[in-house]
Design brief:
The structure is a homodimer of 304-residue chains. With 304 residues, chain A is of the alpha/beta class. The first copy, chain A, has helices spanning 23-30, 61-66, 76-79, 96-99, 117-124, 206-212, 229-233, 254-257, 283-290; strands at 3-8, 42-46, 52-55, 86-90, 111-115, 137-141, 148-151, 154-160, 184-190, 193-198, 217-221, 265-269, 293-295, 301-303. The longest helix of chain A has 8 residues, at 23-30. The interface between A and B is large, with 56 and 56 residues.
């Protein structure tokens, strides 16, 4: 078995975003017919139904865990007064929406924290993460393209994808589609099933496209539909690519890039609150669905 | 007017705490008759009903803002596509449950961030807080005993209270009731009304007790009822005092210390998930209420 729970489907800020008045977030503030809310991007995975790994730890992780029975502490008679089925956490980059939740996972719970050396350096550069007691939380450096067991019977393998360093570490000159250890995708496999999880990807290389052909399920960067979406919505100047995310639309967008790829299910995740695909009847949603894509949502479950 | 919203009444971890199976948290995991949930400690204050200050930024701040209409972005026609009535944030110490929410308050919103020099050093020692663009978020050093306007018509004044450095900065030798700039209380005043907010206090000095006599409302450290509560509940070894919090009970607990003090309303806040006062019919709750204390809860509102 390979089972996945989508804890949060939204990109940084979530839906609604606390200070955003663009059309999607504003539907919540007005209160009439709001969209379905979405928390920041994280998934939980298991192969045995009892030991879980989190891929990324979003700032919403406390509410995400409370919302999912599978991630609650188990019976105290058997498991004791401190318990969690969460046995490991894997990080795909050092962005706040992927690491801030680590600060909630303190409170003396033992788990393995997997990430590349470069992502671990983001954590070690911030003493606040010492809240994770090193006696209990083991920081494990994971090399790209080297499979490891993330929880029992579930293999994970990281691979570099084009991306950039976290915003809070950007200097004056930013390379937005660097291929290195700062942004990775994850291959998750159990028995003969394979799921790819790539919440951030600035550009689809031929090599990466070939790799993904093997998958039963692909979760892919759905941050923006239009590269200039922030400008269109009037809430920012940065393009999707400047933020390290290829758009869905356009000649080199993900809809076109994956048009003829052989993958069981293609699911957009890490969707920004500005993205029109959040609106069930938008032309953009229809275009994505017509191209065979699903739109992830909080509470989505997949069992292979 | 001086108006206060309790955004979160719980100490670090919240109620329930993600990995806790002690009696209060376990009521949520079993699902039968759970207690009222509580997020981590933060209040919002205003004197004009339109500009708000947050005192402490808890890890739950995104959900706390979404839950309170008063803190939502206002009409986009008038206030634009990026808006928040939150104009400032004040920190009372550098603990994770008081500062991690700053990471959610990114997204290009301008506000003033007030704290003592020592608390600002905790932030500047962690580059992740550079997510708050210094062009927009002004870090303002606030000296103890020097009143300042935190939002229009609302004065704030910090004063040292006995406490300790954040857990993640503890060295081998920890002074748990140091009086300095690392833990402060806040005096909030508008017109002729005064509210004191002291979510952490290791010991009540005579000077501090005298100061509080002036208050219409006192919010005070309600972390633990029993100093040895973590041991009693089987979830830890540390005493309340070791964590920098005086207990409610005992000869030098807060119930005794404030027995004859002249304050309009006394309200416990920053209540740990192990504290029996969360249970409406517990003897400890009855003892606190008989001594004139109220127990804060998420959604509590006070208007003076």
């Amino acid at each position: 078995m390979l089972r996945i729970l989508v804890l949060g489907a939204a990109a940084g800020g979530g839906l609604p975003q606390w200070n955003c008045n663009a059309i999607n977030s504003a539907s919540f503030w007005r209160g009439d017919q709001p969209l379905q809310a979405a928390t920041q991007c994280s998934i939980a995975v298991t192969a045995d139904g009892s030991s879980w790994a989190l891929v990324n730890a979003s700032p919403d992780i406390r509410a995400q865990i409370i919302a999912r029975r599978e991630l609650h502490p188990r019976a105290p008679e058997e498991y004791g007064l401190r318990d969690s089925p969460v046995r490991s956490v894997l990080l795909t980059n050092g962005d706040i929406d992927h690491i801030a939740g680590l600060l909630t996972l303190r409170e003396r719970h033992a788990f393995d924290l997997f990430a590349t050396a470069e992502i671990h350096r983001v954590l070690s550069g911030n003493p606040i993460f010492n809240a994770l007691d090193p006696e209990l939380v083991k920081r494990r450096e994971t090399a790209p393209n080297a499979p490891f067991e993330i929880v029992p019977d579930l293999q994970a393998e990281l691979f570099p994808v084009p991306g950039k360093v976290p915003l809070f570490l950007e200097g004056d000159a930013v390379v937005t589609d660097l291929i290195g250890e700062q942004t990775v995708g994850v291959r998750l496999s159990a028995a003969d099933r394979t799921v790819f999880f790539i919440p951030g990807c600035a550009r689809l290389t031929a090599e990466l496209r070939d790799k993904l052909q093997q998958g039963d399920v692909l979760f892919f960067d759905g941050t923006v539909f239009h590269d200039d979406e922030m400008q269109r919505e009037g809430v920012g100047q940065k393009t999707g690519r400047r933020m390290g995310h290829m758009p869905m639309s356009g000649d080199d967008g993900s809809l076109q890039a994956f048009r003829d790829i052989d993958i069981g299910r293609k699911i957009y995740i890490h969707i920004n609150n500005t993205n029109p695909v959040w609106r069930p009847h938008s032309p953009e949603r229809q275009e994505a669905e017509a191209a065979g894509w699903e739109i992830a949502f909080d509470g989505m479950e997949i069992t292979l």
